[in-house]
Amino acid sequence: MISELDLEIVNALQINPRADWSRVADVLDLSGPTIARRWNVLAEQGLAWITPSPGPRYLSAGWSAFINLSSVPGQHEELIRRLCAEPAFGTVSLVSGPHDLFVDCFASSHEELMAIVTGAFADLPGVTRREVVFVTQLYRQASEWRSGTLEPARARLMAKQPAPAPPAYAPDRVDAALLAELAQDGRASWAELGAACAVSPQTARRRVERILASGYMTMRCDTSVAVQQGLREVSLVLNVPATHVDTIGRYFASLPSCRLSAQVLGAQNLVATLWVRDYLEVQAHERELLARAPGSTVISRQAVVRTYKRLGHVLDESGRSKGVVPLPLWREAS
Predict the structure, then answer these.
(1) How far is CA 223 from the centre of its chain?
(2) What are the tens digits of pLDDT across the range 156-187?
(3) CA 248 to CA 296: how far, in whole Å?
(4) Which end of the chain is less congested by CB atoms within 10 angstroms, N or C?
(5) What value, to the nearest 5°, has the Cα angle with vertex 312 and ends 309 and 313?
(6) 96 C-beta neighbours (distance < 10 Å), count
(7) What is the Cα–Cα distance from 217 to 309, expressed in whole angstroms?
(8) pLDDT tens per residue across span 274-322
(9) 224 with 306: CB under 8 angstroms?
(10) pLDDT (tens digit, 9 = 90+) per residue, 186-213?
(11) Please, are residues 220 and 51 in contact by the beta-carbon 8 Å criterion?
(12) Which residue from 98, 143, 138 is spatially nearest to 252, judged by alpha carbons?
């Protein structure tokens, strides 16, 4: 059973994923060891985890695409297994609508993304159709979504102080290694990260904080279905008049239920993903869409039936993390 305290810990770490346990404890009026112990149980059971995620400036350093696949039903199981094993495919979901599977794809360069798009599907079993759209602008990402369990005053106490963004820079071997270690354990200590990457704890901290301050990457707290309290995931695939696409992208981004709002290049130009308690909520957003941007078209509505992989974490039938395939979010510059 997930307790109210566990939900509060998760919400606190959604806001500030690498906050010291003492800070979380102060906000929740408990001791640091108690908070750490409760989190460790959640993590060990695969109910919650923290991992690197694209930041608000990710698209200036990396590349992303959404891929919709149609496939032969008898080969679903093997196809999903192969998709989950591929590091570049961050999320793999079975969805309703005109396609069977939704996949998001990450690459550290345009050339790498093109190689994946042109070559990764040739050997996959059962694929009958694919549709690829490239992400061109992010208005909101899943790392910004909050469950809202904490009272607003406590949530504000958990917020991170913004750090000045460093000048643009290229990643090196140490940066890439640190991200790979954080993918395994987003709460790893500076000493553990330093030892794994053959640098001092001080260097590990300085490098990670630079990565996060740059906005290229952020840290994200995800949970199993059991912790999501009955929320249902729906994506709207939209074609919005060019004069309104930014306005509508920001409109969806402003919604508490919004997990993703992204401008894309394809037959559609905007994708919005919402976590709702009732599918009827989606109709209200569609009505608001037409009021704000007449001429908009809903190309498709996709309800997630089951997620097999989320941002590199492979999930079991109940949505618990059972392993991780680190994403190639950022690799050493050549």
Answers:
(1) 11
(2) 999 988 878 888 788 889 999 999 999 999 99
(3) 10
(4) N
(5) 60
(6) 13
(7) 20
(8) 999 999 999 999 999 999 999 999 999 999 999 999 999 999 999 999 9
(9) no
(10) 999 999 999 999 999 999 999 999 999 9
(11) yes
(12) 138
Burial of 195 (0-12, 13-18, 19+ CB in 10 A): middle
SS3 283: helix
Please tell me the distance from the alpha carbon of residue 163 to that of residue 3, in angstroms, as a whole number.
33
Q: Give the residue ranges of DSSP H helices in the chain.
A: 4-15, 21-28, 32-44, 76-85, 110-119, 152-158, 173-184, 190-197, 201-214, 245-253, 280-292
Give 3-state DSSP helix, strand, coil % of the chain, rounded to 5: 40, 30, 35
- CA 326 – CA 184 distance, rounded (Å): 7
- Rounded Cα–Cα distance for residues 308 and 234 (Å): 16
Give the predicted TM-score (pTM) of the model: 0.93
DSSP string, 61-106: T-EEEEEEEEE-GGGHHHHHHHHHH-TTEEEEEEESSS-SEEEEEE
Helix 245-253, helix 280-292: angle, nearest 10:
150
The CA radius of gyration of the chain, in Å to the nearest whole number, is: 20
CA-CA distance, 251 to 192, in Å (whole number)? 41
* pLDDT tens, residue by residue, 27-71: 999 999 999 999 999 999 999 999 999 998 899 888 999 999 999
